[in-house]
Amino acid sequence: MGESFPMxxxxxxxxxxxxxxxxxxxxxxxxxLLTSAILGNLDIERSSRMFAIADLGCxxxxxxxxxxxxxxxxxTQKCKIEGYSSLPxxxxxxxxxxxxxxxxxxAYLPPDRKYFASGVPGSFHGRxxxxxxxxxxxxxxxxxxxxxxxxxxxxxNSPAWNKGRIYYTDAPREVGQAYSLQYAKDMDSFLAARxxxxxxxxxxLILMPGRxxxxxxxxxxxxxxxxxxxxxxxxxxxxxxxxxxxxxxxFICIYIL
Length: 257
Hints:
The protein is of the alpha/beta class and 257 residues long. The chain has a domain at 21-146 and 173-215: Rossmann fold (3-Layer(aba) Sandwich). Helices cover 35% and strands 15% of the residues. It contains six helices and five strands. The protein has a five-stranded parallel β-sheet. Helix 5 (173-197) links the parallel strand 4 (134-140) and strand 5. Helix 2 (31-41) packs parallel to helix 3 (63-81). 27% of the residues are buried.
């Protein structure tokens, strides 16, 4: 079974809404690529009068609203180029974990949106929609998250035991392999599900962070940020041990990428 760790809900200072500026900027920089992909590859003639779009891993906004506006803007341009006298109706499905803060998401739906909106709770590592019903599948900064932590990382008898670490930077080779194997399984499940759900002539658009081939995890841009965090967590555990008179308290905190 997968594990559910949604982004922090609400709109407070620690919420995803107030702490997703980097994702927003990266998605904005990809707008021209997204538009080009829709104009050049989407077979709009094979769609019905209702055009279905799904954002997988939508979180709580506002990034998903900006992305949907960009997609519909490109679709409108595509329809004009193709000579359509009227636009199809747009249906947008916002998907995330069951425990995602959908209340905040729908509270901030743009009042002037050009689409019908609905929520689809559940993991995108499995089927979510009927066969061949989605014309565009979009996912931004979500597919780097695993469905669950590799079991080996919590097994004290495994060479991949990730003792005292929150990340795989500078960890034993077996730790990285455990993450890679889990990621391969997750991607296989994701792509198999989307192959069933994507309509003929449809398009899948994915934005996700990565690193160049041949580079080490320690060279990842997140590494410098996570090392101090790891050290702080270890110090906090030591303080708990001292305050509770515990000699051997182990902690395993896994940052899933």
